[in-house]
Design brief:
Strand content of chain B: 5-15%
Oligomer: heterodimer
Shape of chain A: flat
Order of helices and strands of chain A: HEHHEHHEEEHEEEEEEE
Radius of gyration of chain A: 39 Å
Radius of gyration of chain B: 30 Å
Distance between the termini of chain A: 83 Å
Chain lengths: 368, 536
């Protein structure tokens, strides 16, 4: 069956491809010779022509192609006629995407396996050997190309060396063109993060500057203000600055967690806050408000564990202890959550008496 | 009539002649048709990446027809009732529209996402194949570097891609990306402000990510993939050692007819797999996450798998902040900027580092079995282990939740594991390689274990070994030299098994007669004795 490989194959002789006695395969083999390919084995995988095994393979491949066509038709059928619009509850439409996937997959798999079995089972078995040529590039070629490049370089270089005016002119002419190419990209993109009087990096929506100079109310996400009795003991609420669009992403650094502590926790929290220069006087009664934006990577540190008085950021698991000025006690955060100075206005609604006294959000190089 | 028919037959010939006279294409075309490719299943891993990329291009074009990269707020009025009336960006609304109100849109979106995951996964597995078999050695160092660059570009393509729907999950990812930019010393705030066009999130980022995702990054990927494949073509594929195979030849099949056909079939199979995944397995259900709100995040917020190693490193890094006067470097900088930059670029130098260490400047077209280079396998195992610990740590909150483990314990396990496990992996991998080498050489020296136990006259039991090569005068095998390729370890592998009969219920064809050893004539049915316990 298998043609034995000879370690030193006799290099086949070149043939005249215009010789009419040559078969087509002879001409193919001449091509292989020219491409330095030795066809070691190229033979049918079946014994004799029209063998039972061959017919069986042909039958299987034909079946696969027909199956592919049927599955593709099924895909089109489902695509056109199956109800696909989304409706609440369990409906026929739920099966639209799975049906598309299954029919398309069957179709593609069938085509794939048909082609694969065609290649692997029907086509003659083949072993070819081709020579590689990456071993040693001809050194004379290397030399010629190298010398040519050096020659070109010298022609150009000496030309410039001998003509100082040209040298200066080229330098003067090309450098600005390069800068011109870069300028719009850099100049257009670059933004000064510190340009405003109240740079956005250090200001949130609770700054009176954002509210025409008057203090900002704490509001829910629908913009309604909050009275102290709206938050039950041990409860918490996400609050936003009561300015236009205060609850939208325009004030992405402003979401704040308003917590109504139980009295014993409030006592401890107040003691720690009063001992701190920045947080002194920021609590209102048993209420405390911390920025919700994690000082590590800016996710909302929104998992409040009432039992342990911890705030956990679900992104990287930084944990902050509420009773101790929201000091980080675990995880990658270094800095505590800033406390919002709380007050209540004459109408009985919560206000921020000033902006956060610490910078809100993730840390950066020039944070004071 | 007859004359006209002959003319028709002649037409393609005339046409081909005309083409060749103008473009001189026949010689390169013949070389292409005849090009020989080596065949092994492990050479197909990179193909999966290529095919996934084609699927990404096809499905991605469809998605662009419906997506609107605008951050203008709008009230949702679409088909999904739970979000009706909710304020959201146009980007998110158009992604919902694509998922619910475009016929087959969800299917296409899921195909795109699954193909992206498959793209990155096959890149990683392909890279491991290339590393562990030494395929990156001279002359293929450039392709190793391009491969690393492709991973980095794929990473960026994936990140910009899953940020585009602007849903609750991806917005959180974008927030973290902004924090990572902010953490860069000196220029961090400038970088973030420049990319987001002001303070996070601004109104520009979706448009910028969109053009990066659909033009700049795919353009880079396309260019690098072309060079990658061009080099594989030019340098010819590596091959495993084996009979007839040398460092200066390629043993395999010609591009046509067999090889190209097999590739086509394999492409269809990969495409079918993606279609099946997209149809049956939900991915990134953005309608459940809601629009991005800076104040909202759900637990178990995980990025796509190929970003998880970075997220894991960010979680594991202790809160070490460096203060320099009034300035500081936040801990986020080290894993996310230095870590990502280092891990995706430092391995580029590996081929030269290894060549320098071993002093090996030769050209290698034959692959090495991993066991034949224990040190390389050890180092690769270290890298894989590091990556695995980092990736698992990227989901440590989910693991802690599902297995009722303390979250803090998971973090500490990751921190310790990241340092302790890679050296351990190195040690184990080297020992395993040496053990496998030893076993190969044992079989080459003594032959294959037959499982036949023979009792010698002195009462000693010995196992009969089947020599793989010639024997000396005493019948002991002459030790064979190791050829860098699979050594048969079982009798079935050296032809002791009867030839397989084709057919499912009945044989398709009569099995060819098994060769009969003159020394051991086959036992006919009559003379065969039933084996009994000996008791009646």
């Amino acid at each position: 069956m298998t043609t034995l490989h000879h370690d030193a194959p006799d290099a086949p002789e070149p043939v005249d491809v215009h010789d009419p006695r040559l078969t087509r395969f002879d001409i193919v083999k001449e091509g292989l010779r020219r491409d330095e390919i030795e066809l070691v084995t190229y033979e049918s995988q079946f014994q004799g022509t029209n063998s039972k095994a061959e017919k069986r393979v042909v039958r299987n491949i034909s079946f696969l192609f027909i199956l592919a066509g049927l599955a593709a038709l099924a895909f089109l059928g489902f695509y056109i006629w199956w109800p696909w619009r989304f409706q609440l509850g369990h409906t026929m439409g739920d099966y639209f995407t799975p049906l598309l996937g299954i029919t398309l997959a069957i179709s593609l798999f069938a085509v794939g396996f048909a082609i694969l079995s065609w290649a692997k089972k029907l086509l003659p078995h083949e072993v070819s050997i081709q020579a590689r040529h990456d071993g040693m590039p001809p050194t004379d070629e290397q030399k010629i190309t190298g010398q040519t490049m050096v020659f070109v370089g010298e022609e150009l270089g000496q030309g410039v060396q001998r003509r100082p005016l040209l040298k200066g002119a080229i330098g003067f002419g090309l450098a600005p063109i390069g800068l011109v190419a870069a300028a719009p990209l850099i100049g257009g993109l670059i933004e000064n993060p510190h340009k405003a009087d109240q740079p956005d990096l250090f200001t949130t929506g609770f700054s009176p500057v954002k509210n025409g100079g008057s203090v900002v109310r704490l509001t829910r996400d629908d913009g309604t203000p909050i009275r102290p009795e709206d938050v039950s003991t041990g409860g918490q609420m996400t609050v936003f600055p009561g300015v236009p669009h205060g609850a939208t992403n325009e004030y992405a650094d402003s979401p704040t967690l308003l917590i109504h502590l139980r009295s014993d926790d409030a006592e401890e929290t107040r003691r720690n806050a009063e001992a701190d220069r920045r947080n002194r006087g920021s609590m209102w009664g048993d209420y405390v408000a911390y920025s919700k934006i994690c000082t590590h990577a800016g996710c909302p540190a929104s998992l409040y564990e009432q039992q342990t008085n911890r705030l956990l950021c679900p992104c990287h698991q930084s944990q902050f202890l509420i009773t101790r000025n929201a000091q980080p006690i675990f995880g990658p955060a270094t800095r505590r959550l800033p406390m919002l100075p709380l007050g209540v206005d004459e109408e009985g609604y919560f206000v921020a008496t000033s902006d956060f006294k610490d910078t809100v959000g993730p840390d950066f190089w020039e944070r004071p | 009539m007859k004359r006209r028919k002959a003319d028709l037959q002649q037409a393609p010939v005339t046409f081909a002649k005309g083409v060749d006279e103008r473009f001189q294409a026949s010689t390169p075309l013949r070389a292409l048709l005849n090009k020989v490719f080596p065949d092994h299943w492990s050479f197909l891993l990179g193909e999966i990446a290529l095919f996934s990329f084609i699927i990404l291009l096809l499905t991605g074009v469809f998605l662009t027809l419906f997506y609107d990269p605008s951050m203008t707020e709008t009230a949702y009025e679409g088909a999904y009732p739970a979000l009706r009336g909710t304020e959201m960006s146009q980007a998110y609304a158009s992604s919902l529209h694509l998922s619910f109100e475009v016929r087959g849109g969800l299917f296409m979106r899921q195909m795109h996402h699954w193909a992206a995951l498959l793209f990155m996964a096959s890149i990683v597995v392909h890279m491991m194949r290339v590393f562990f078999t030494g395929a990156y050695r001279k002359p293929r160092e450039t392709n190793w570097v391009i491969g690393m660059a492709l991973f980095l570009l794929g990473f960026l393509a994936g990140f910009t891609g899953y940020s585009l729907p602007d849903d609750g999950l991806s917005g959180t990812g974008l927030r973290i990306a902004s924090a990572i930019m902010l953490s860069i010393p000196v220029v961090g705030t400038w970088v973030s402000a420049s990319i987001f066009g002001g303070e996070f999130p601004g109104h520009l980022i979706m448009g910028r990510f969109y053009i990066a995702h659909v033009l700049l990054i795919p353009g880079g990927l396309l260019a690098l993939i072309s060079v990658h494949l061009g080099l594989v073509f030019k340098q010819k594929h590596t091959q495993w050692p084996g009979p007839m195979r040398t460092n200066t030849n390629v043993v395999g099949e010609r591009m046509f007819p067999r090889y190209a056909l097999k590739q086509g079939g394999f492409f269809m199979a990969v495409f079918g797999t993606v279609a099946l995944l997209a149809g049956l397995f939900q991915i990134n259900p953005i309608w459940l996450f809601g629009p991005y709100r800076a104040s909202e995040v759900s637990s178990a917020s995980q990025p796509d798998w190929y970003v998880m190693f970075m997220d894991g490193l960010v979680r594991l890094t202790p809160n070490w902040q460096i203060y320099i006067g009034d300035y500081s470097i936040p801990p986020l900088f080290w894993p996310a900027v230095v870590g990502l930059g280092f891990l995706t670029t430092a391995p580029m130098a590996w081929p030269w580092l290894e060549a320098r260490k071993t002093g090996d400047k030769r050209i290698h077209n034959l692959l090495e079995r991993p066991r034949d280079n224990p040190e390389r396998v050890g180092i690769g195992s270290m890298a894989v282990t590091f990556f695995m610990v980092a990736t698992i740590s990227g989901a440590n909150d989910v693991i802690a939740d599902k297995f009722h483990i303390s979250l803090n314990a998971m973090t500490w396990a990751g921190r310790i594991g990241l340092i302790v496990l890679p050296p351990l992996a190195y040690f184990i991998a080297v020992r395993v390689c040496l053990g496998l080498q030893q076993h190969d050489r044992e079989v080459l020296a003594h032959g294959v274990e037959t499982g036949i136990i023979r009792r010698l006259p002195n009462g000693q039991f010995v196992e009969v070994h089947q020599p793989l090569g010639p024997v000396d005068d005493h019948g002991h095998p002459i030790p064979l030299e190791y050829g860098g390729w699979v050594v048969p370890k079982k009798m079935n592998r050296v032809g002791a098994l009867a030839p397989a009969v084709k057919g499912f219920f009945y044989p398709v064809e009569k099995p060819s007669e098994a060769p009969v050893s003159p020394g051991m004539p086959p036992i006919s049915g009559d003379s065969r004795e039933e084996i009994t316990s000996g008791r009646k």
